[in-house]
Structure formats: structure tokens, C-alpha cells
Amino acid sequence: MLIPLSFLLPLQLLFTASPSLQTQPQGTLHRREYFYVGENYVNTPGTNNGSQIAAGQVYVEHLVPARVTQSLPILMIHGHGMTGTNFLNTPDGRLGWADYLMAAGFEIYLIDQPSRARSAWQMGVDGDQSDFDTTYVASHFSAPEKFNLWPQSALHTQWPGNGTPGDPIFDNFYASTMPSLNSDEESSIKVKAAVGKLLDNIGPVILLTHSQSGQYGWILGDFKPSLVKTIIAVEPIGPPFINAVFPPLTPARPFGMTEIPIAFSPPISSASDLKIEVNPALTNASLGTTCFRQVNPPRQMVNLVGIPTLLVTSQAGYHAIYDDCSVDFLTEAGVPVTHVRLEDVGIFGNGHMMFMEKNNLEIAEKVVLDWIQRTIH
């Protein structure tokens, strides 16, 4: 039987890699689709003719490996200034956590937060935005060892490249950052609405959050406790009630770990019902960290007490200073938290963007996947 040339040519292109691609990892065979959820039609700003635009929607990327062997998909939510591309591959072209976890048999859902990147920001509807400059990204994420803003930063060794502008790996990473809503309260409200609808559509998930989106784990687990089966919080925003390390050390997250209300038992009518005190054992004024805890007996985060949670902290990131305080607050509030400091399991030199760093797959294997396998039955 003759095979048409038009059929053979795509195969030749598929299996004949250019020299620049021959050293790249093959990745995991999968099917990809995308969709949107959570949009609301609002009147077009500045008009009175009844025209409308969509706002509040979230872009969702769905990755399905050729062999799905796990019962629960993983929903990954990125942090401030970032997008779902964080988890696809690293800035230097290596496989990311999404690929690794697909190889382990998981379906993956990635989102861009509402009002960011492929989830459109609508002028006149959504709040003000700002973005990270290169100094912020280098000093906090890719090259903190060069800036010495916190003691542990000197231990940072795992970023690929030198982590500063002009290095092609840094430039690739920085180009991926996006303007984000200034208000974490507004972001939280929008994520709760849109991702809540996503959960209604796709069913139960393992929820993986990072940094700013850490509070969305608690919010979504509280909002949809039957659909959030576990939470993996990679350096979640904290500590409770106040900003830390970087001035101004202003009050934040009035509900402890979140900007917007979640359920407590006994119930609260406002954030002021949460009576707090300084935890001296976990406070370090010289490092810009005040740790607050609830006054005994602590109210329970009642909708989260049945959700197993993993909180991961790097050795060299700024969360090394205060994640213990976040864990203490969550634990006293009844959340079943396993806290893994990477150096305690033999993984050294990582910073806040650990899933992009040179040993990213070691973390995925030894910490994330290991905990999932021991927790999900």
C-alpha cells in the first residue's frame, strides 16, 4: 500500500529533531485542552447602550497523560506575578512539575489567576495592577544570595544561571512575569468565585498552591471541602495577621491566613472576634517577624480539619524565617499539617521558586509525590 507523502512528512518532522532540541527532554505524552470558567457579564464601562463584557473568568489548561493511573487530578495555582506556565517547564528548558506528575499518572489542571495573563484584566472593572521589577525578582527569587536581605539567602545555590538581568535564563523567567492585582482581597474574592465553579465542574482534586495562592488553598478548602481532598502549600503567603521580613511590616490577612472570611468554630461575625497574642517562641524582631497565635482555646478552621495538608519550606528562601509560625497557627486551628523543610530531608540550597530550580524534580519526587502516595488511599 502506498503511503501519501503528506502523511510521511509530519512523521519525519516529528522524529528528526534539530540539533538545538536533541538534548532536550522528551516529556510526557499527553493530550492538552484549555477552557474558561467563571465569567460574568457586566456592563461595558463608559457605555449605556446595554453592551457587556466578560469579567472574572479564569483560564484553565487541562493536561491528560496517555496513561492516567491516579484517581485524583492535581490543580496547580501559581503565585503573585506569575502564571500557570510556572509548572510547565523551567526557564532553562527542563521538565517542570506538571510533566513529572503526569509521568506519575496524574491529570493536571493549571490556571492563570483571574485578571491576569490569559484570564483577562478588564479596564474599568478590575482593580489596579502592578508588576515586579528586575531587582525584586532577582533579590527575592533568583539570586537572593547576592542581596543578603535575610540570613538564609546566603545558602541559595539551586537557581540555574546567575539569576540577574542579562543572563538568558533570568531573562526568560522575567519575561514570563505578569502584572497582578494590587489587592489580595480582590484576588481572593475572584479566585474563590471562579475556581469554585471550576471545582464544581471537574470534581475532587489535590490542590497545589504557591506563595500568594497559598491563601487560596485555605479559602477553596473552606468553600468546597468535599472537593479539595488534600492541599500542598509550597511556601504559602504568611505569617498570620501581619507581613514579615520586608518593611512595611503592616497588618495583613485579618482572618489569620486569609484576606477574606473563612469558617471558624465557634463561629465569628468579624475578624475582630479572633483574639490573638504574640507567640514569643516564634517571634524574631531582628528578622522582622512577629508571630501571632490565637488566644487559648483557639477557634478551629472547621472546614479544613478533614483536609490533609503538606506545607513545604525551602532552605534559603525568606519563608524559612516564618513558615513555622504559619504551621503553628494552622495546627492550633485543627488543620492536619505535615511540615517539610527541604534541608531536613537532604535537599539543600533552594529558594522560593523551588519548582524551577536545578533540583526541581528531586523535590517533586522525594517530597510532593512521596507525600501524596502516603496520604491518598
UniProtKB/TrEMBL annotation:
Pfam name, any one: Abhydrolase_6
Transmembrane portions of the chain: none
Name under which the protein is recorded: AB hydrolase-1 domain-containing protein
Protein keywords: Signal
SUPFAM superfamilies referenced in this protein's UniProt entry, alphabetically: alpha/beta-Hydrolases
N-terminal signal peptide: 1-23
InterPro entries noted in UniProt: AB_hydrolase_1, AB_hydrolase_fold, Carboxylesterase_BioH
Signal in keyword set: yes
Occurrences of domain AB hydrolase-1 (ranges): 74-364
Alphabetical list of CDD domains matching this protein: Esterase_713_like-2 (cd12809)
